[in-house]
Every structure is written in structure tokens, then in C-alpha cells.
Specification:
Length: 242
């Protein structure tokens, strides 16, 4: 059985076991969301909604999102949050770059759950293994989802899966970006390439640390440790313990 079939079947089971009617996710125009679009369509047919959530986004984002939707005959709905984001910043007062940037994915996630509640759908995440391990996602933003079908796939595996599904090559070759600000790219923001992350992760899993440079290993291990709180439930104080 192909990987795309295995993941699609898994998604379908999650929906059924949760007593939900379908799935909703953010269709950003990027590779990961396009892959989720293809998997979602296979899993739930017409009971899938891709939300194209614009929040000071590039026109290219919407164009590529519609390209993916057309490829997989996916229902979409466009939501414009730019004015909402601006109003939030007016009320909260502008702060530092990261605080302002992280507001966007949190507004997007609020929107996704609004539609999920309205339709009795599950919210599906689009994060891959590389991003999740180093904490390249916003806590209670794009990390706040019900299921993560790509969460155990390295970026190269997602790319391979994209070609298996027939994701348009234009999207496959697109430079990864979370769209946090103009000109932002994933690798520049993380300070490491997906390839470097993959080599370290694979070396750890195979027990062959010597295959990667000490500098990259230490850097990525530090990122994994610092972002641990993003991957685990909130810590609870236990009575009787110091």
C-alpha cells in the first residue's frame, strides 16, 4: 500500500472515531498544505473544506492555494483577516516583530476552529516532522490542531509524497514560507536548512551522531530542547511535590 493511502485511511479513521463529519484545514498555497489537501480529499471526499485565510498575505499565496484546490477538486472558502489583525494591533499596541507575527497564525487557528465547530469537523494540521521537532510553529496557532497527518514525515518525505499525489510542480518547488512577514522564509527564520535538520534527526534515530557536524548537532539539539514545551501538554503543579 502506498504511503498516501496509509495516511488517507488514518485520517478517515480519526474522523470516524471522533464522531465528526469531515475535516477543515488552512490552505496556504505551500507544499505541506497542498499535500494535506490531496490526502484529505482521498480520506473524506466532499466533506473537506480548505480555508484560504488571507492576513496581509501575498497574492501568490492565494493563487497557489486555488491551484491546489483545483487539482484536488476541493471546496474552499476565502477569509480576509488583514483588518482584524490590524485592529488587534491597534488595541494591543504594536510590540516586537515576533509577537506581532505570531498573532497571525493564532487568528487563523481561531477561524479554523470556528468553522470546525460550525460544521462538526476536525481541524487538520499541516506541520511536518522537521518543523515540529525544532519548534518551528506557533504555540496555540498552527500547532493547535486536532490531528497532524504529516507530523512523522521529514520534509524530503513530504516532497516525495507530494509527487505521489500529483501536487502541481510549481507548488512543490516553491520556497517554504510561513508568511509571517514580507520576504520571510522558513529556513532563514529557523537559521538552519531542512536538509541540516533531517541529517541530524536521521543520525539520532540511527544512533550515528558521527555522521553530522558537532556544530549542527548541538544547534538543532538546543532548538529541540528549547521548544519542548510546545510539543507537550501544559505542565501541572502536583500537590505534595516540591
Amino acid at each position: 500500500m502506498k504511503l498516501s493511502d496509509k495516511i488517507s485511511n488514518w485520517i478517515k479513521r480519526q474522523v470516524e472515531e471522533s464522531n465528526k463529519d469531515g475535516i477543515v484545514f488552512g490552505l496556504s498555497g505551500g507544499l505541506d498544505s497542498a499535500v494535506v489537501a490531496g490526502l484529505a480529499k482521498r480520506a473524506c471526499g466532499d466533506n473537506v473544506l480548505g480555508l484560504i485565510i488571507m492576513c496581509d498575505s501575498l497574492a501568490l499565496d492565494e493563487k497557489d492555494a486555488l491551484l491546489a484546490a483545483e487539482k484536488f477538486a476541493l471546496k474552499t472558502h476565502r477569509i480576509e483577516l488583514s483588518r482584524v489583525n490590524e485592529h488587534f494591533l491597534e488595541v494591543l499596541h504594536e510590540s516586537n516583530k515576533i509577537a506581532m507575527a505570531n498573532l497571525k497564525p493564532r487568528l487563523r487557528m481561531t477561524t479554523l476552529y470556528y468553522y470546525a465547530n460550525m460544521l462538526n469537523y476536525l481541524v487538520v494540521g499541516t506541520g511536518n516532522k522537521c518543523e515540529m521537532l525544532v519548534g518551528y510553529f506557533t504555540k496555540y496557532g498552527d500547532g493547535g490542531v486536532d490531528i497532524q497527518p504529516l507530523g512523522d514525515l521529514l520534509k524530503s518525505e513530504v516532497t516525495k509524497l507530494a509527487r505521489e499525489l500529483g501536487v502541481p510542480e510549481k507548488i512543490v518547488k516553491r520556497v517554504p514560507s510561513a508568511g509571517l512577514w514580507k520576504g520571510q522564509t522558513d529556513e532563514e527564520e529557523m537559521g538552519v536548512t531542512y536538509g541540516e535538520i533531517e541529517r541530524v534527526v536521521v543520525s539520532i534515530e540511527k544512533g550515528k551522531r558521527s555522521e553530522v557536524s558537532s556544530q549542527n548537532y548541538e544547534k538543532i539539539m538546543k532548538m529541540m530542547k528549547a521548544s519542548r514545551h510546545k510539543r507537550e501538554p501544559a505542565v501541572i503543579y502536583r500537590k505534595g511535590k516540591k
